[in-house]
């Protein structure tokens, strides 16, 4: 947050106490050395010196040095002077200080707190407390900084000089700049579906180790086209200072698949774009991340920086800001609406107005609320971090009340999602399909297929979306870093005629979209359709909720449709175009897996064994499952091993001959290891993790999953199966007969899994008898 002597109108207090016991200028001062820019995720050392003001600090008075909830810097420690993040604290007058690190020691978003209490003695005016972060005197590497960029990273100091437990922030805060490191990989992004002759852009960036777009690229890259792309240069030049590069005016005159590769001066391929399909079609594809927050609530960077990143550095077509309603003051609501109106440019980039209704799970849980235009009523779940209470009388304290109020006001143009963040949505407590059109199955918090299964069990007809719910200021490209967020932020592909708010909201209402786990290879192309051998009635909306829902007689349907099929059979057809090779395509009828489509036959299986761990502890905040463990091969020889979805760069796979060890966690998503053996069938595989242990003959491992389950409140398990030594298929078409239940809904959808661990889920086609 920028350095302000007086808070901006939408800023909240740090202590929750409105009293100002001490004038700000009398609280003392704090300075940090060194200052300047530091690489994200690097180690550094800092001296923070607090100088007491006129009141000093009384016996039992305290300081707090606070960091944002979103920050994933390493915690200070006070025991090991040779280790990372060693910290010392000393008073200049010899006063005895008590130290405590508490990750929830202050009011959000400044949760993470180093608490320094004067327990013997006191400080007079001019006395100092020196805090040394990342002491290296005995050989330690220093303090590991957060893994994402922030122009104004604060060491936020609060003082309680009179020992009244009323902590007040100093008027000027010490801060540094955290910037991107050198690029370690390059990304090339194209749109995924366009019509012949339509112009489009190639967008390129270099990312550092932690996924931050780097401003230190200095490369000339050769451009290799797969397909006939008009206007493409032979080379592109990436220069220092810029964090992304755009090459406009490209087009493809004929239908087909195209893509682009980039090569360095040695001829090595450094980036492959996602595929682009050119089709004569009514609907093309646009990508969005509609869920995240900025520093005005619990995120990082300003709201303007948030939308700028999404548009210019993440290369998404649509973005929404979903700040917690109990932190959005009226002033910030007005500012946020000004920002979305400014950034929204039809045909170029959409900024969708909205907020996150953030009620406790017992009251319904978190919901995303989206509007087609600015300056709408924000119906808050509470005023937990806002002064004044519900003076406008518009609060909705439960999700059910929120739905009722929207219906009573006739706000039928509002679209909502149920999602799982800290306060997960309980759609059994409250749901209204007239507004709530989809559930979010993946975000930076993890993967939540159980939320979709809840909808099926309850008979709701919802679509599937994925977003980041990112707090690191990187909407559309939200990497997990080193903190509690265990996954890459998701993306949603919207199928619509052109890029306008009206079309986007219509697409959201009709569920014509699919969600992916995001990342470099998360922009795959999925087409899904159904064919019936008898007459069906196809609805664009739910006839159980809308008497006048548009209906047509047809023998075909698309993703998101609701279909009444009194009799007859259904065939599902689909096509998938990817960058990473296809591992499997699973067809579901609700929760039931009915077909698995693999682009290879059992005869192609080789000596590659894939071991995957997956699951979440429970539905709430602390859902992390620790999979730290080992694998050992006996009676065979390991030739190579590759990690799968080791998304946190601090978690690594280590190999010592035929033995592996790893540190890993999941939050509903999955990770694992590929093991290449010298002999396909010989020997034994032994796995040891905190939850699951087993030993199996390698010859028993085949194409079908062997499941080793640890029964908990949610599924937690390890899967083992065999793959071909090399997967090459990135384009696959399939058609399967679907076994429909005789009564009730048949939600038919697919889940795609790529070799690199990326997943995608389509919205279902709902077929009922």
Quick structural overview:
This protein has a 15-stranded mixed β-sheet that branches. Helix 1 packs parallel to helix 2.
Topology at a glance:
Elements: E1 29-33, E2 37-39, E3 43-44, E4 46-51, E5 62-67, E6 87-91, E7 96-102, E8 112-120, E9 128-133, E10 143-144, E11 150-154, E12 156-160, E13 168-169, E14 175-179, E15 185-189, E16 193-194, E17 200-207, E18 219-226, E19 235-238, E20 245-250, E21 256-263, E22 269-272, E23 276-278, E24 284-289, H1 303-312, E25 318-320, H2 330-343, E26 350-352, E27 354-357, E28 367-370, H3 399-408, E29 415-418, E30 436-443, E31 446-447, H4 449-458, E32 463-466, E33 491-496, H5 501-510, E34 513-516, E35 525-539, E36 551-558, E37 562-564, E38 570-577, E39 582-589, E40 592-597, E41 608-615, E42 625-626, E43 629-634, E44 638-644, E45 653-656, E46 659-662, E47 665-666, E48 670-677, E49 684-688, E50 693-697, E51 706-710, E52 716-723, E53 731-738, E54 745-754, E55 759-762, E56 765-768
Parallel strand pairs: 2-14, 16-23, 24-25, 25-26, 29-30, 30-32, 37-56
Antiparallel strand pairs: 1-4, 3-10, 4-9, 5-8, 5-12, 6-9, 7-8, 11-14, 12-13, 15-17, 17-20, 18-19, 18-21, 21-22, 21-23, 24-33, 27-28, 28-29, 30-31, 33-34, 34-55, 35-36, 35-37, 35-38, 38-53, 39-40, 39-54, 41-48, 41-52, 42-47, 43-46, 43-49, 44-48, 45-46, 49-50, 51-52, 54-55, 54-56
Helix pairs in contact: 1-2
């Amino acid at each position: 947050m920028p350095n302000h002597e007086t808070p901006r109108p939408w800023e909240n207090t740090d202590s929750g106490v409105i009293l100002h016991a001490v004038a700000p200028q009398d609280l003392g001062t704090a300075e940090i050395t060194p200052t300047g820019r530091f690489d994200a995720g690097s180690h550094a050392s800092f001296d923070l010196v607090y100088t007491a003001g006129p009141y000093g600090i009384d016996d039992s008075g305290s300081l707090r040095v606070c960091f944002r909830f979103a920050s994933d810097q390493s915690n200070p420690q006070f025991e090991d002077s040779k280790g990372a993040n060693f910290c010392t604290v000393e008073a200049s007058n010899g006063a005895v200080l008590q130290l405590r690190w508490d990750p929830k020691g202050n009011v959000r978003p400044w949760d993470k707190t180093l608490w320094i209490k004067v327990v013997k003695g006191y400080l007079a005016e001019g006395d100092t407390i020196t805090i040394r972060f990342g002491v290296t005197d005995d050989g330690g590497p220093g303090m590991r900084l957060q893994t994402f960029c922030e122009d104004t990273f604060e060491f936020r100091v609060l003082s309680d000089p009179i020992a009244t437990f009323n902590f007040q922030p100093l008027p000027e805060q010490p801060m540094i700049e955290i910037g991107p490191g050198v690029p370690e990989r390059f990304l090339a992004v194209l749109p995924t579906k366009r019509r012949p002759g339509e112009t489009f852009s190639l967008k390129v960036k270099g990312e550092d180790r932690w996924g931050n777009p780097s401003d230190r690229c200095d490369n000339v890259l050769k451009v290799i086209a797969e397909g006939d792309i008009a206007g493409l240069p032979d080379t592109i030049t990436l220069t220092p200072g810029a964090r992304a590069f755009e090459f406009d005016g490209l087009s493809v005159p004929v239908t087909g698949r195209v893509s682009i590769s980039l090569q360095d001066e040695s001829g090595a391929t450094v980036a492959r774009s996602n595929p682009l399909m050119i089709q004569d079609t009514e609907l093309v594809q646009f990508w969005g991340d509609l869920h995240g927050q900025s520093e005005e609530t619990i995120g990082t960077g300003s709201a303007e920086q948030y939308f700028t990143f999404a548009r210019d550095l993440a290369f998404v077509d649509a973005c929404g800001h979903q700040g917690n309603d109990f932190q959005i003051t009226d002033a910030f609501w007005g500012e946020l609406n000004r920002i979305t109106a400014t950034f929204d440019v039809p045909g170029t980039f959409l900024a969708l107005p909205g907020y996150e209704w953030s009620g406790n799970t017992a009251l319904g849980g978190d919901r995303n609320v989206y509007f087609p235009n600015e300056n709408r009523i924000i119906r808050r779940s509470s005023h937990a971090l806002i002064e004044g209470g519900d003076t406008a009388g518009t609060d909705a304290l439960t999700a059910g009340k929120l739905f009722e109020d929207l219906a009573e006001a006739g706000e039928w143009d509002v679209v909502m999602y149920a999602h799982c963040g800290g306060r997960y949505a309980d759609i059994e407590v409250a749901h209204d399909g007239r507004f709530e059109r989809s559930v979010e199955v993946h975000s930076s918090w993890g993967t939540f297929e159980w939320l979709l299964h809840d909808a099926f069990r309850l008979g709701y007809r919802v679509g599937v979306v994925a977003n980041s719910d990112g707090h690191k200021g990187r909407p559309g490209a939200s990497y997990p870093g080193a903190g509690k967020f265990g996954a890459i932020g998701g993306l949603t592909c919207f199928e619509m005629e052109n890029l306008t708010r009206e079309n986007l909201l219509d697409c959201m209402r009709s569920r014509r979209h699919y969600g992916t786990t995001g990342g470099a290879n998360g922009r795959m192309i999925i087409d899904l359709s159904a064919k019936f051998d008898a007459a069906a009635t196809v609805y664009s909306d739910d006839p159980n909720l809308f008497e006048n829902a548009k209906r047509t007689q047809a023998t075909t349907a698309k993703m998101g449709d609701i279909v009444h099929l009194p009799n007859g059979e259904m065939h599902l057809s689909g096509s998938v175009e990817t960058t990473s090779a296809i591992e499997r395509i699973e067809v579901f009828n609700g929760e039931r897996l009915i077909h698995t489509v693999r682009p290879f036959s059992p005869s192609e299986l080789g000596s590659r064994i894939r071991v995957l761990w997956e699951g979440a502890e429970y539905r709430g905040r602390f859902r992390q499952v620790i999979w730290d463990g080992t694998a050992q091969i006996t009676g065979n020889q390991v030739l190579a091993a590759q990690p799968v979805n080791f998304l946190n760069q601090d978690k690594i796979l280590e190999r010592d001959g035929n033995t592996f060890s790893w540190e890993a966690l999941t939050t509903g998503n999955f990770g694992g290891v590929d093991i290449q053996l010298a002999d396909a069938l010989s020997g034994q595989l032994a796995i040891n993790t905190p939850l699951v242990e087993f030993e199996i003959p390698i010859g028993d491992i085949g194409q079908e999953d062997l499941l080793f389950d640890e029964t908990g409140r949610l599924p937690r398990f390890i899967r083992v199966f065999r793959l071909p030594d090399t997967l090459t298929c990135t384009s696959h078409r399939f058609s399967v007969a679907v076994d429909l239940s005789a009564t009730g809904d048949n939600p038919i959808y697919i889940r795609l899994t790529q070799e690199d661990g990326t997943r995608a889920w389509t919205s279902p086609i709902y077929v009922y008898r």
